[in-house]
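Problem: given the chain below (216 residues), write out its structure.
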Amino acid sequence: MATRSSGPGLSEPKQQRSRDSFAKVRQATLALLRERGTGQFSLAEVSARAEVSIGSIYGRVAGKTELLRLVQSQEFDRLDDETALRVGAAGLGAPSFARATTRIVAAYAEILRINRDLLSPFFLLGVDDEAILERGHRSGDAGQAVFVRALLAAAAEHGVDLSPQTADWAFEVFYSLCVRYLGLGVAATATPDGAYDWDDLLERLARTVSLIVTPA
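Solution.
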């Protein structure tokens, strides 16, 4: 019997099929993390959601723990890049230091809000998984560095005397309040603190940061 040619357009390279299959696994894992709010699901559920065999998944990772770590690494790399791009440029060209501060706070807070359903499960998983915790800390440190650099650049642009130590403290206060409001690190069934609506919270956060970083 004649062998079918594998010329262009007739068959997909095996390596590309493998990448496509694993992309489905990754998306299924992300969907389950967002739906459950925790890592409480099985590889069998991932397999069924992705329509990829368990054997194919084990061909790429040793098990669920490695899969979660890989997905976290890829997603946090994306968030690190997004934070550097959006927060790093947020204060540029603002008409005043106060306005620059507001823009920086809003840009970072919005990234956290949009990605809450991704971040919260990994906060929980990091309690028992040192590798996930360490990767989370690296992203947190990177985000803090971007936030602080943006504040210092805005201060320099507007002739405000701001020390790195004060900018660091402003981030610590901002981040703690934002994480509490968004309920990061709690199960999806828990409702984040709703004492303020989002725009009100952003205004209060910006005012708090401004009070910390603006000389008396």
